[in-house]
Each structure stands twice: as C-alpha cells, then as structure tokens.
Amino acid sequence: MEGAMRTPANYVPLSPISFLERAAAVCRDDTSVVYGSVRFTWRETRDRCVRLASALSSLGISSTDVVAALAPNIPAMYELHFGVPMVGGVLCTLNTRHDAAMLSVLLRHSEAKVIFVDYQFLEVARETLKLLSKSTTKVPLLIVIKELDKVVASTAIVPSNELDYEVLLENADTEFQIKWPKDECQPISLNYTSGTTSAPKGVVYSHRGAYLNSLSVIIFNAMGSMPVYLWTVPMFHCNGWCCAWAVAAQGGTNVCFRSVSGRAIFDQIAAHKVTHMGGAPTVLNMIVNSPPSDQKPLPGRVVVSVGGAPPPPKVLFKMEEFGFHVIHSYGLTETYGPGTVCEWKPQWNSLDAERRAKLKSRQGLQHQTMQAVDIKNPITMESVPGDGITMGEVMFKGNTVMSGYLKDTRATEQAFEGGWYRTGDLAVRHPDGYIELKDRSKDVIITGGENVSTIEVESVIFSHPSVLDAAVVGRPDEHWGETPCAFIKLKEGHKVDAAEIIQFCRAKLPHYMAPRTVVFEDDLPKTSTGKTKKFLLKEKAKAMGGLTGKKFSKL
User: Fold this and answer.
1) Number of H helices, E strands in the chain
2) What is the pLDDT along the chain (555 residues), one digit of tens a residue?
3) pTM of the predicted structure, to 2 decimals
C-alpha cells in the first residue's frame, strides 16, 4: 500500500529479552526471584543477566553458539534464560535425570561450547566430560554454580580448569551492550525431547516463537500484573513451558526451589502467597495424596496449569476440592510446551463435579498465538468428523511450532509433511470443537481388531480408591494379537489384588478394553516431566511372554 513502509520505528524483531528490559524499568525494585533466604529485584536480575552475557562474550560465545545448562530450578537457571540470548547464544537446558552416557550424546550433538552445572550434578558432569574427551576435542568449558542460599551453602571446590559462576558475574561488565537478534527467527533455545522414546531429538525454538508462546501462557493462565509463580515445572523442560519469559513479561515473582514434594508445595504457597504454578499430573498427584499433616490452607486463588499427560478426572476433581483452579493445556516440546488449552465455559459451572472434571480433562482448542489445531486422517489429510468417536492424528500449524530438529532435515521434513506439524498423538473432536486425546499412535492397543485407548483405561484405573499411579500397555497374545496390561502403584497402606482391578475395570468398560494382566510396582518409570516411560513397560510386558487368549472370547 502506498506510503506504508517498514522502518526501525515500526518494526523490531520480537524477543523475550524485551520482557526483562521492561520488568527492570517498570518493576525495578519489586522482587523478581525468591530462593530460600535469597531475594533479587528485577533491577538486580537484569544486572546479573547483563553481566552473564558479558562473561559469555569474553569466553568467545557469539551468535548461534550453544550454551548448555545442567541445573534445577535455581536463580542461575532463570538468569541463563536471558543472559545467553543477550549475547546471541542458544540455551540448551539438559534433563537433570540423564546419566553421563546420555549427557555426552546430547553435548556432542549440540556442540555446546560451555556448560553451566549446579554443584549437585558436578559428579555426573565431570564424568560426562571425560566420556566426551575420549571421542572429540570439542569438550565444553565447565562453569560451576554454587549454592546461593547461605542456609544450605555448598562446599563445592572449583579446580583451575573450571570456572565459578558468581566469580564470573562479579568480574563481568555491567555496561555490556545486549546483542539483540537481527532476525526474530534466530534460534533462542534448544530443547531435547523428554525421552518417552529412546531417541531424543533436538528441538529448535526461535525468539519469535518464544515471545508469542509466552504471551499465550500469560493469557490462558490469567496471569495478571505481578503474579507469584511457583517453579514446579522444570525449567529444563520447554524452558519451563515458556514461563521463564512469561513471568518477566508481567513483572512477577519467581519462587525457586530444588525439590518438589507435596509438603514443599504447600509450604511455598503459604510462605510466598503463590498465585500460579504448573506441572504434570504427577505433581497434582503429590498434592491430592499429601498426608493431612503436610497440607496448609491456600492463602488465595492458586491457578495450576497441568500438561504433559491427560490428567485423570478423579485427580482434577480432588484438586478442585482442595481449592486449586486447574487449567488443562496440551502440547509437546515441538510446540514450545502448551499448544492448546481447555478453555472453560461458564455454562459448565452448573454441571455436577464428575461431569466438570471430565470436561476439564479434554485438551480443548489452540491457544491465542497458535494458528490452528486439527484432527486429521494422517494418510488423506482430511479432517475427521466432530463426532467424538472418529480418531485421527493431532496436527498443529502456527508461529509457535518449532523451527525444526537440529541436524536432522529428514526428520523435520517428515514432521512438517503436508504443511502441518504431525504430533503422532491420536484424538477425537467433539461436536463443540474441543479435542480429546486418546493415545499416542504407538501406544494404541489393537486387540482382536479393536482399538483400545490406553488413556481411557488408565482413567478408569485411576478412579479406584487404592490406586496412586497407573499405566497401560499392550502385552502379546497368541489369539488376540495383544491385550491390555496394567502396571499399577498402590497408595501407601492399601492392598488390592489383580482380580479386583480387572473386575473393577470390566464394570466400567467393554470387556475387551479391561486389563487381562495387572502388575503391581513400587514405582513406574518416569521422565523428569512426569510422563511414564511406556517403552520400558512395553519391554516388561513383552518379556512376560504371550498369553493364550481363547477364553477371553467367553467374557
């Protein structure tokens, strides 16, 4: 259009760095980070992040260089989310549950030049670098993060070939000039998928995508000005579902702590008047199954964003009884964390509690900055009917879909085939348009030609009063191909046998969907984000050998 033009006056590449700049200006003397006895203001956090960028620059880090981090939810981990992109680097936050072998694979693949390591993980980090040195000369420089909280100060000794985080910041330039991205599609972070499969991929996020998804997180979590956010979501997972940047955008307070437990959650909420938090259903489980002695009254409204796996309706119902307001979101590492939200409708408030919980357990629709979500036939790419029955693959399209997989063009092209990001998740669309996840395509059990949604079976098992955790996979069957096999963790002090679980399920499900095998476990294998490692349970089920399922036909 004549007269219209793009100039520095009306176009600036989007970047979450701007959130910190604004917070430091608007909320300069307000609390930015709380960690035990340690408190920082937004002015101090901005200063520390600039110093961090300066230090990285002096170490030779520049545009698109990868900087890794192995740390829990502590102030330094938060600062890395701004300090690294301020120098043009790409932050790669690593899963603290990985062993040295896996960490060495990821560091080699990412070609990280520097790794920041919390003192708690020094041993595994040093072992990792030894492994790396045997196969490559590209071994990252190790920077040690000591404990800031004087109450539990670390005694970690930093040898001459390693650097100390606080010393690094102390000697850095406070007037360092931030290197803003020239292109908003420039990478800001690298996130490796959580490991429910055995082959993690490196997912690349852009400044633009991170900025937009942060805004969506603010909107659908109803994060007003200056929220108090409790860090129960690992910052190493999808950059804390983009909340690391979102809290800065609203000038809120980040409540950091190392070890997540039911008691710790209640203590932190009471001490700091927490308004928002998040987590996988396992975090919700910690809360609802906390002993009465660990529970404390909520000081006010606490919004909990849940994602990572479909939450059982029973758990949602109990959270509501406790007084929490649960918002159900759904997404993947490839969608910067949250991609959809189960937007609540006022007319649902009049429904009974069980029905409300069932509705809230759906995945809903795309959030405000995701262009579209659809359920499609993966072969024809046609949308499935909105009948709540016909299953298809969940597909996303929009600015908050990853840039691609690092060093894997073929996998990126396959993921984007047909102009949509293909999740591999199976779902239905209800008549009101909301989607409901049914399973991962690789997890669906096919028994006698019938598809069994493991999520649906797990939801029923969770409703048993003695069940704390459950996962269902397929077990080989000579007659039916495979049949449902349930792995169950019971609540402490509860006793129940396999026959009771099976009968309980048969009373609520078609018999072919009910487990034929029940295995009781002390704990189910989990990723750090609360997802069950079903590939390990499948191996267990396969090792049990095949059933002879002819008598099943008489049920």
Assistant:
1) 17, 26
2) 999 999 999 999 999 999 999 999 999 999 999 999 999 999 999 999 999 999 999 999 999 999 999 999 999 999 999 999 999 999 999 989 888 988 999 999 999 999 999 999 999 999 999 999 988 778 999 999 999 876 566 666 677 678 999 999 999 999 999 999 999 999 999 999 855 444 679 999 999 999 999 999 999 999 999 999 999 999 999 999 999 999 999 999 999 999 899 999 999 999 999 999 998 888 898 899 899 999 999 999 999 999 866 677 878 888 988 999 999 999 999 999 999 999 999 999 999 888 888 898 899 999 999 999 999 999 999 999 999 999 999 999 999 999 999 999 999 999 999 999 999 998 999 999 999 988 777 787 878 666 788 888 998 998 899 999 999 999 988 777 789 999 999 999 999 999 999 999 999 887 888 999 999 999 999 876 677 888 899 889 888 876 654 443 333
3) 0.84
143: left (phi over 0), alpha (psi -120 to 50) or beta: beta
Collapsing DSSP to helix, strand or coil, 543 comes out as helix
Query: To 5 degrees, how large is the angle CA 272–CA 275–CA 276?
Result: 115
CA–CA separation, 503 and 275 (whole Å) = 42
3-state helix, strand, coil in the chain (%, to 5): 35, 25, 40
Can you tell me the distance from the alpha carbon of 437 to that of 421, in angstroms, rounded to the nearest whole number?
Answer: 16
CB-based contact 291:298 (threshold 8 Å): no
Residue located via tokens 């910052």? 235
DSSP letters along 153-169, please? -------TTSEEHHHHH
Nearest to 390 by CA among 375, 373, 372: 375
Tell me phi and psi for residue 221, to 5 degrees.
-90, 5
CA distance 168 to 158: 12
First to last CA, the chain: 71
- Compute the Cα dihedral for 120, 123, 129, 135 and give only its sign: negative
- In order of their start, the domains of the chain are 12-25+39-211 (3.40.50.12780), 443-554 (3.30.300.30)
Between CA 371 and CA 366 the distance in angstroms is 7
For residue 39, the 8-state DSSP code is E
How many CB atoms are closer than 10 A to CB 225? 9
Tokens of 7: 């100039």
Q: Which are the contacts of 175, defined by CB distance < 8 A and separation ≥ 6?
A: none
Closest by alpha carbon to 52, among 93, 28, 87? 87
For residues 153 and 156, give the distance between their C-alpha atoms in angstroms, rounded to a whole number: 9
Q: Is-contact 41 155, C-beta < 8 A?
A: no
